[in-house]
Design brief:
The structure is a homodimer of 299-residue chains.
Chain A: E1 2-6, H1 12-21, E2 25-29, E3 44-46, H2 50-56, E4 59-62, H3 67-75, E5 91-94, H4 100-111, E6 116-119, E7 122-123, H5 125-130, E8 134-139, H6 142-155, E9 156-163, H7 167-195, H8 200-208, H9 215-225, H10 235-252, H11 257-271, H12 282-289
Parallel strand pairs in A: 1-2, 1-4, 2-3, 4-5, 5-6, 8-9
Antiparallel strand pairs in A: 7-8
Helix pairs in contact in A: 3-4, 7-8, 7-9, 7-10, 7-11, 7-12, 8-9, 10-11
Chain lengths: 299, 299
């Protein structure tokens, strides 16, 4: 079928390619023409605007940086609303990570134009996008979800309809609480071990078999020990996601102590110029603040 | 062989029983005679003091509440030091959770009496003790460790020599950072979902397959959804363990933001009378503080 995809960055590019490799006819638009190069070899059509993409494809995915970008490519000038009227039943699927309130608002405004909407943010990072192993968390109606599900399954290994519009973004926010706090806690524990004069690799090994086990301890913990701070998932992106979490907490009157502490650590990472490193580089921040001198293989 | 075991509480009792069931001759002492009842059916000898236990058995395990208790039964009046001289090569293995500094200190003082010492705290709780699936984290010399290892393997499914004396307690402290912060983060995330009007069970389900996976999310998360706050691992014990962590952090000049936030939550649990509930009851604390009213199936 004809599928539109808007937002061909590190995540969007491999995700769209999986749809093309599954035999779908891609319709693309990108602000930077360079983003389109990988699509020269597949069945992909390039257009001058998001509106034109929407005119060609009844389902359009968006994968952009933040809520204003989603609003722009969907509802703005030259946006999806200007082309979607060509279809009996157009669908927009936003896979960006934006605030739940923004997703609900965009969904409502698209509905006024007769356009169905799913919020479907992902977890799993660039490698998950490349290997089509993303976790996809969806908000919207079951009917629209079932229609899009075969396409989700080309991009991810686990897709869950969490609830109504916005519920995908709520699940993503929860996911970022657990991964953010998880990274902070593993970094704190490994630094605690080092500073106590104990081999953090042995401590991690001892903990892996028990109730302290987490995917973060296994994979990110190993990368911390290897001092491999290459992203992965950049600190500024995790900071951005925790801003969404803390803004929602403020709006709802919710106390999130461990998430708040972690958000402060990520703020300090940005402030000390570590934004482009993986969020696991929070270990280096903790080391610096604990006055432990060590030779860093990856300074 | 003859094995001593001192401290027959919820954890120590099933641990000692596994040693007896493996064919060892148990030598026991307990402050409360009721603790000895389960040993009527096995090859166990009851003594009037820890000293007498140590006179009979060259290896004595201790599993008591806190550092002063360990010091008392090892070095105090009627303690292990008074009986251990009967053996060529006595060994004390403390499986309690105490500060690393206390473990190092007790090890040093026992060495002055010619007694070898391992600190070997465990993770896995009462069910781990009953099912012999504990994670055992050991500090001491490789030689003594190898001698005791066959006994550890009757009580746990994973035993790791982490480093020198005190290293077992350091690993346990790290373990309690990860499990404590993990419980807080999962409670924060599930409460965030509920308060956002989204089914927390669906959110947990969506997250389980990805990088947010943890043993805490899977098992404790499910118990939170079931509103099953029966211990398990009591809040006051987790609070005690985080006190050890935060005291060490203070001593070492270490910043532990997520652990500190979690320690405050556990303090609030004690302060609001939740000390005897499982530490996952922190969810109820967060719910109360977010003003969400709900009917609790397990009030």
């Amino acid at each position: 079928m004809k599928v539109g995809f808007i937002g061909l960055g590190l995540m969007g590019r491999p995700m769209a390619l999986h749809l093309a490799l599954a035999g779908h006819e891609l319709h693309l638009w990108a602000r930077r023409p360079a983003s389109l190069e990988p699509f020269a070899a597949v069945n992909a059509h390039l257009h001058v605007s998001a509106a034109e993409v929407a005119r060609q494809a009844s389902i359009v995915f968006t994968m952009v940086a933040d809520a204003p970008d989603v609003a722009q490519v969907t509802l703005g000038a030259g946006g999806i609303v200007e082309g979607a009227a060509a279809h009996r039943r157009p669908i927009v699927v936003d896979m960006s990570t934006i605030p739940p309130t923004a997703a609900r608002d965009i969904g409502m405004r698209l509905a006024a134009h007769g356009i169905a909407f799913l919020d479907a943010p992902v977890s799993g990072g660039e490698s998950g996008a490349i290997n089509a192993t993303l976790t996809i968390m969806v908000g919207g109606t079951a009917e629209v979800f079932e229609e899009v599900r075969p396409l989700f399954e080309k991009m991810g290994k686990k897709t869950t309809l969490v609830g109504e519009q916005g519920a995908g973004q709520v699940a993503k926010a929860c996911n970022q609480i657990l991964t953010g706090v998880g990274v902070a806690a593993v970094a704190e524990a490994l630094n605690f071990a080092s500073k106590s004069g104990v081999d953090p690799a042995k401590v991690r090994e001892a903990m892996l078999g028990g109730s302290a086990y987490s995917s973060i301890l296994e994979h990110h913990g190993q990368r911390m020990l290897d001092r491999n701070f290459k992203p992965g998932f950049k600190a500024w992106m995790h900071q951005k996601d925790l801003r969404i979490v803390m803004d929602e907490a403020h709006r709802l009157g919710l106390m999130l102590p461990s998430a708040a502490a972690t958000a402060q650590l990520f703020n300090a990472m940005i402030g000390t110029g570590m934004g482009e490193e993986d969020s696991i580089a929070v270990l280096k921040l903790l080391e610096r603040m604990s006055g432990r001198r060590r030779t860093e293989s990856n300074p």
